[in-house]
């Protein structure tokens, strides 16, 4: 009987040592059932809720980070130009698609220039670039009431510090700035209804009916 007991003791010792190696790894053999499922991050949801309730983390900041992660926020311009080229247009269409998912969120467009030219001229140029972006987004289904007053930074915030022409400095940046209703309660459980409303409206196709009195445009759900 001693031999089997010795083998069991040796097996248990090896398993314990394997569970306490230098990599701090563990196994279900040495830890409680279900320890491997949680991954050690169970408290993140509680921490997130606490930060929201205390104001340490805001809905606006969360949406701004998500916007910056999921779509490009910046487009660039040719020298002394406000024209939106094909590359910039593709980026702005992606921005518009993202913005339409959140009909209660406001955005702001910041215009920038490089350092060539006077301060006053570059300020006006930055404003015109921001205006061009707002006009483009409004043509792609974004209400101007959701695009807050555009801001021109002129040449004051270069990405590349140089006095020469620099395309990377000639840009606009789109950012999340707040909520249409000015209060984060629009993000409560009813927010799904807001998104669903926008989803249903996106499926309405304009249909023109022609008759004796003329033509009438009607919404037609597909």
UniProtKB/TrEMBL annotation:
<dbReference type="InterPro" id="IPR036737">
    <property type="entry name" value="OmpA-like_sf"/>
</dbReference>
<feature type="signal peptide">
    <location>
        <begin position="1"/>
        <end position="17"/>
    </location>
</feature>
<dbReference type="Pfam" id="PF00691">
    <property type="entry name" value="OmpA"/>
</dbReference>
<keyword id="KW-0998">Cell outer membrane</keyword>
<dbReference type="InterPro" id="IPR006664">
    <property type="entry name" value="OMP_bac"/>
</dbReference>
<keyword id="KW-0472">Membrane</keyword>
<dbReference type="InterPro" id="IPR050330">
    <property type="entry name" value="Bact_OuterMem_StrucFunc"/>
</dbReference>
<protein>
    <submittedName>
        <fullName>OmpA family protein</fullName>
    </submittedName>
</protein>
<dbReference type="GO" id="GO:0009279">
    <property type="term" value="C:cell outer membrane"/>
</dbReference>
<feature type="domain" description="OmpA-like">
    <location>
        <begin position="64"/>
        <end position="180"/>
    </location>
</feature>
<keyword id="KW-0732">Signal</keyword>
<dbReference type="InterPro" id="IPR006665">
    <property type="entry name" value="OmpA-like"/>
</dbReference>
